[in-house]
Structures are given as structure tokens and as C-alpha cells.
Amino acid sequence: MRPFEYLIPASVDEAITMRQEHGDCSRFIAGGTELVVAMKAGKLRVDYLVELSRLTTLRYLKLTDGGLTIGPLTTHAEIARSPLLRGPWLALAEASASIREPQVQNLGTIGGNIAFAVPSADTAPPLLTFDAMLALQGPRGTRTVPISEFFLAPYRSVLGPAEMLVEIHLPGTGSHFGSAFCKVGRHHGLGLSVVSVAASLELEAGTIVRARVAMGVAAPTPRRVVEAESLLLGEKPDSSLFREAGRLVSQAATPRAGSIRGSPEYKREVLPVLAERALGLAAARASAHAERGSR
């Protein structure tokens, strides 16, 4: 690895100033589970690393106005274990729990997983199904961006020069809401994703009134499948409906040929199964939440 200088800011503002001063030769680093790998492979030339892990004000999980707010330095292990994610946002806990080894989960952060914009970011599909909002702070102040507009291309996002992700907000959900995350990984559903699907459903009187389906590692960026969502709206949950939705997910996929993670043919074959499974789990969890709420 090339030599680099390590910079330790005392605040978010100081971190942003450091990035401004050193420009394209600098990068923010938190857990480093994506960045360091890219540096070792020679894919990134970095002369200055701006260390964020000591900014403890960016590490939290808290309920706010019926929703959930997450600091970007919150680790995958903290998300996987948090009781705040045992209910409607369970898909995010499942995604974090599926990320590689425990050592990586203890070190890797949700902010790094999203900000690096890798197509295989496991937390991206669940956040897409929750309509997450991302707060970005840079030299010109803070702005809020829907996660559906954040990813531009592999390893490219809307983050501007010296801009950083400072908060993730999940809007509140109805009482009859459920979610799930399913993936094929290299080690029995764990580790690096071959392909993934997240789903969230809200039910009203047994009918689907809100549906989100998102896929990962099946297109240049993580993305929702609006064709499947439209099919589900206004319908009663059942296996044949979810099977047809899975077919639409597979049809919408544009996996890259030559990927070491699986051929396009394999991913299109697996996606319907994952989508059907995720939708079935989301529906069952939404129904269970409804039953608990009516007692």
C-alpha cells in the first residue's frame, strides 16, 4: 500500500475542512472495510485519510417522531443487535447481520457501506424499501437526499467534494408493517453478496396498501423494482402473487456479465426465489404486528 498521512479531526466541521484542504487525494475513513481493500488493490490513490471513528456524536440509534434515526458511524454489529430494529425495520438488522465475519461487523459502519456506493452494499436494499432519507453535510451546509436518488453508478454517488453522510432517517411506519432481507452469499447466506432482495409491506384489512421491493448486486446500483411494487398494491398476500412479483424482479435485473460473484443467468434464476421468500416473510411479520396491535 502507498504511504499516506493520517488526519484526526475533532469535529465534523474540521473533518470537512481537512477534505477541502487536501482535495481528491484525501478520503474519509471510518471502519475502512471497503476503503482499505480498494487501496490495497491499487484502485484508489489516497495521500490523506481523514479518520471519522472518533466522532462519537455520529454513532447512535434513536427513535424520533415515530421513525428511526441512525448515525453513520453505527456499526453493523450494533444494528444487528439493537432492540429498536426487532419490529418493522427488521430487514436492516438482517442485512447487517449477514455482512461477512463478526470482525467486519464490529468494525464496518452503515455510513461507509452506503457512502462507498458499492453495488453489493447489503444495507442499501432495506433502506430503499424504507424510503430512507440521507443528511449530507459539506462546505456549503447540510442537505437531505432520498436514498433512491443517492446512487449514480458503481462507486459513484451524489456526494460532492468534501461532503459526508451525517445521518440516516427512516420514516415512521404503520402498525401493520413488516420487512425482510434475503440474499445468496458465498458462505451459506453470509459474507459477500452474490445477489439480494429486500421487501417491506404494509397491510390494511388484509390488503397490501404499501409495497417496496429492492434488489442488490443485480444492477449497476441497488434499486427498487417499481413494476413488482405496482403488482402488489391492492392485492391480498399469497404465494402466487409473490411468485409473479419475483418474476418481475428477475425481469428487471441487469446483472453484469463476467462478475466473479455469479453469472447473469444464475442471478436471474435466483432472484424470483429470494423475492418470493422476502415478500412472504414481510407479509407474515406485518400480520403478526397487526395481531399484536389489536390485543
Task: Give an overview in words.
This protein is α+β, with helices and mostly antiparallel strands and 295 residues long. The protein folds into three domains: 5-51, Uridine Diphospho-n-acetylenolpyruvylglucosamine Reductase, domain 2 (2-Layer Sandwich), CATH 3.30.43; 58-170, 2-Layer Sandwich (Uridine Diphospho-n-acetylenolpyruvylglucosamine Reductase, domain 3); 177-286, CO dehydrogenase flavoprotein, C-terminal domain (Enolase-like, domain 1), CATH 3.30.390. Helix content is 34%, strand content 27%. The protein has ten helices and 14 strands. The protein has a five-stranded antiparallel beta sheet with strand order 4-5-10-6-7. A four-stranded antiparallel beta sheet has the order 11-12-13-14, with helices on both faces. A three-stranded parallel beta sheet has the order 1-3-2, covered by helices on one side. The chain is globular.
Short description:
By secondary structure, the protein is α+β, with helices and mostly antiparallel strands. The protein contains ten helices and 14 strands. It has three domains: 5-51, Uridine Diphospho-n-acetylenolpyruvylglucosamine Reductase, domain 2 (2-Layer Sandwich), CATH 3.30.43; 58-170, Uridine Diphospho-n-acetylenolpyruvylglucosamine Reductase, domain 3 (2-Layer Sandwich); 177-286, CO dehydrogenase flavoprotein, C-terminal domain (Enolase-like, domain 1).
